Amino acid sequence: MATAIARHKKFTHDYHSKHSRYMVKEYSSSEVEEVRYEYKTLKNIQNVVQRKIPDKHIRESSMIRGPKFLVRLRSHTVFENTPVKLFCKVEGYPAPKVTWYKDDVQIDISSGKYFVESNAGLHCLNIIKCGIDDTAQYTAVAANSHGQASSLAAVIVKRVKDDEKFCPFSWMPYEYAIIPEIKYTKINIEFLETFDVKFGKEEDCVTLSCKMTISPNLANLQPEALWYRDEHLLKESKWVKMESGGGVAKLTLTHLAKDDEGLYTLRMVTKGGDAVHKAYVYVEDGPPPVPQAPGAPMDIKIHDANRDYVIVSWKPPNTTTEGPIIGYFVDRCEVGTEDWVQCNDSPIKICKYPVSGLFERHSYYFRVRAVNARGISRPSRMSEAIAAVDPTEFERLHVERLGGKLDVVAYLDDLEAEGTAPGAPSNVYAPETDRTYVVLSWTPPVYNDRAPMWYYIEKTQVGSSSWQRVNTQVPVRSPRYAVFNLAEGKEYLFRVLSANMYGISEPSKPTVPIQTQVLRGVPSAPGQVVATRETDTSVLIQWAPPKEPNNLIGYYIDLCVKGSKDWISANHKPHKKTEFVVHGLKTGETYVFRVQAINELGLSEESQESAPLSVKAALKLPSAPYDIALLHCDGQSMVLNWKRPVRSGGSPVTDYYIDKFSVAKKAWHEVNVPPIKERLYKVPNLTPGSVYQFRVYAGNLVGLGNPSAASPLFRCEAWNMPEPGPAYDLSTTEIRDDSLVVEWKTPVYNGGSDISGYYVDMCKTGTDTWTTVNTSAVSTRFLKVKNLETGSSYIFRVRAENAHGVGNASVSSDPASAKALPGAQEIKCGVDTKTGDIYLSFESCQITEKSQFVWKKSYEEITDFSKGLAVTTAGSCSTLFFKNPDMEDVGTYSVSVTNTDGASASYAISSEEMKKMLALSHDIRHPIIPLKTELAYKILERGRVRFWLQAENISSAVTYKFFANNKELVNCEQTKMRHDVATGVIEMVLDHFTQESEGTYAVQIQDGTGKAQSSLVLIGDAFKAALTEAEYQRREYIRVKEGPHFSQFLSVHIGEDASVSLICKVANLKKESAFHWFKNDVEVIPDVPADLSSGVCKLPLPLFSKKDVGVYKATISDDRGKDESQVDISGKAFDNIITELSRIAGSSASELVIQCTAEGIMLQCHMKYYTEEMKIQWLQKNAKIAASEKMRVGGTPAMASLEIVEPTEKDKGVYTFVLTDNEKTYTRIIELSGQVYDNAYAEFQRLKAEAYAEKNRGKVIGGLPDVATIMEKK
User: With a threshold of 0.70, does the pTM exceed it?
Assistant: First the structure.
């Protein structure tokens, strides 16, 4: 028998085209038990069906969006007057609505007998007290826009018979079921580490993690980790990854978008309840494609998906500093491709857009980009894939049984049928209207024919009588359709006609006039904004909603520091409520806030700014104290101790109050009227032998908090045991990844003897196994516990020991996780380089406005500062100074920071380290001023002498004294003294330096506490040299001042053209002044006389060589006097000139050339200047050539040459010319072989032949006379 596909409980399907069929595998519980098909048989049947499929096979997972029961209802049998609960769990998108039915009649919830609960897909029907009339079949129907599903269960209520009331079990009240009550295992979950508020940017990856203890931890009964964002259950996807197990639950947001911003909740669900933790995640805009472009839109939603269109909506971004948004572009991408196509040609201004022109049965992704005057934003996160299909696709299916577990499903369109035209639809209305389109919905007519049915929609404007058919080309099969291209603000009437292959029905009754929306604009500005303190880094913002919401979407909150106008966005995703907690603020900073409302058209005007608010924690009542412990009892009183509240409420806890409860009298009474300031109190006036309980209240500036839980029962009996009582006030500090320090206080009760030591026990949190940390007792009241497992949580207890044994253990400490705070630092020890004070410095990785640094020695708080201890605190850094350090300061020092998560550290100063620091401190406090140079002298003009030294550093307060032969000199005209703070130079200028000035000179310097001294011995030859120089400078000064003189003495100048000349400058001349040159005291008359008018005199030395060696002198004189200057050009001076000429020659040397002569082959190197004094070598095949008649080495002033006389075959090879100066070697190479040699040799032979011919031909020695007279016959 054919069955509608919607009635099948569990199935999977493969989807095909209109004329194709489905192959459906149904899984019925009974059939699974009766028949089990082998894989091979099932595969063969599927292959047969597949061969009959004519069209292309596609899978569209996005089409299955209807409700689905994950947990179905279960039947129950109960006795009357007992409660029963029916549970089911449903998933679907959009979230399905569940309706409950009893025997196919909807249950009336208002009767008070039934209660319905829904939470995150879990639905429950609770029947408080069952009666016989509650026996029925109950149905849960889940429905959304994509379909519906149902689940059935039977409830049978039994009545207890009268004869059963007197059975052997008649003692049991008849209203209770005989079936024992189900008791669930209570699982306790305690969070050890939780995630805090997170701040990220688009495209970042963020992980939220919680570490917990589960007790009992049963492998087959693990809690379920459910993650929510803004109370919406999250599921695993490409954007969201979840991990759970091993006491850890993690949520990873792999690729952040602003859609991910919100309040995240982890709910660990067990049978006995749940454990919940929440924190907010903020997502900032990523870097824009162009500066000042808007942020990306978000929350892309798809509505009314049909055969050829969908409606896309989104939320606008905030524009705090960017320009206003002028519109949006909508893009689509077909699934399976990467090509994004822009859907609209020009930007649209509202956040909703109907995308038409889609291909039926194709799936698409959509995204949106915002546009402003600066550019286009980053694209939003793409939507989930949506298929363009007829929503009634699955309702038009027909099932045929093949046998076994397989059905073949066909469209009703494909079945043969005969009948009549359908009836008219009814109840036509518009569930959604917009400016240019209307979504219509109607009730289909009662229709039992097998022929397919479709619809036509017609419209008309109000006041017109002509109806226009809307869908002439595309028949509509679903009872919902969007009509586009309507005029804004106009009123329309609509009606619907049914049709099948046999005809068209009468039109439905027209709708009431439906008016398209008029663009109403953005919301009005929100009302008054009020900021309230929340924590040290967060503020609660509240505001009044806008008077004109205009389809309000949510709100954006902006903030800025008071006095600035640098507004930044507090949230990056619209917030729907009228209050919001802004996190990540700076403690103590003052802020102002404003709010903007958003709808699909954009952002409203800003609200008025809030009153400035300084960020501080709001004051609250303290939490309750806990862990009350009995430390001693003398039979009439008890000494109690308790742990301070976990939360102080933002104000220090100053008062405690104790109540006592006598078990005999069963009443609570106050113990103390004046408040207790310490957490140790002796409760007097107790009755011996009575049993008491106690509770403690904590009070702060706000008031009195809740009382602690009642203490265990304490009997008032005197303690007489010889062992000591328990230690108390256990605390853990200096927590690192593998160690921590446990501290405690001495027991109040010592027992029969003094306490000799302590044992520390530890236990991993969640276990009951205690192990002793120290094998031998420690005498101190602290112990560093090492080798801990990183990340594990531990608790500790302490047992005191005396001569009689070990006493009872203390109350356990609070759990401590072996994990260092992020950025935790250690104490630094050193010596102040300026004051010489020894110091211990600690910079805390956490700090609040109310934090205080507590310094301890041997873990006892330092309170005595009379010895010279001092503490200075600046920001997050605190320093303990030892003003008068000595060896008694050796020990262990620790520091802890209050109002933090345990920021603390310690440092042990050893005896060896203290000795080194004391020595360094002495050197700093009694410093020697370091000197860059010792005392020295310099001869100045006029024969004055400058005595000076230079210190590393001096201040303006420096003082100094100069001494000569142990006699202090005074600052006067004859001995002028001065100093320069910038350079550290201290000097004295002695005006008259004479024979009597011989002796020892010294200077003493003092700058603050620093001292320095330096001396100079000026006697003997050293003094004579100084005196000679001083006298010369006096004469020189007189010379320059009174007559003609040389302003620049004689020197050698070498030009780049290899010219050498002597140059000097003269000054203070007059017309009669005469200038002369001399060489070796012989006057030299230059070709060009000296030009005294320019003051520059020059003597050229052409073709410089050894001939120019000598002493040259220049004189200038007139009637006022004479001055002379000389230079010796010989030895080293001559060599230097040749070296420089070699450099010029080598730099200008040309490549070697061949020049043939009648005597041989000559190799030539042309250069700016050549002289035989230059360091020149000729090489043949890397062997040095010695000058000879065969190898003639020489040259001219313009070149160097090598002549090979009468060359032979042995003279072939590579020839190298080498010229060297003091820094560089210049080489030139030529290869004299092969054709080159042959050509040169031929030329040589030719020239040699010509020379020989010229030498041996006849010559006319004398000419004939013009007239000759000769005798006859001669």
Answer: no
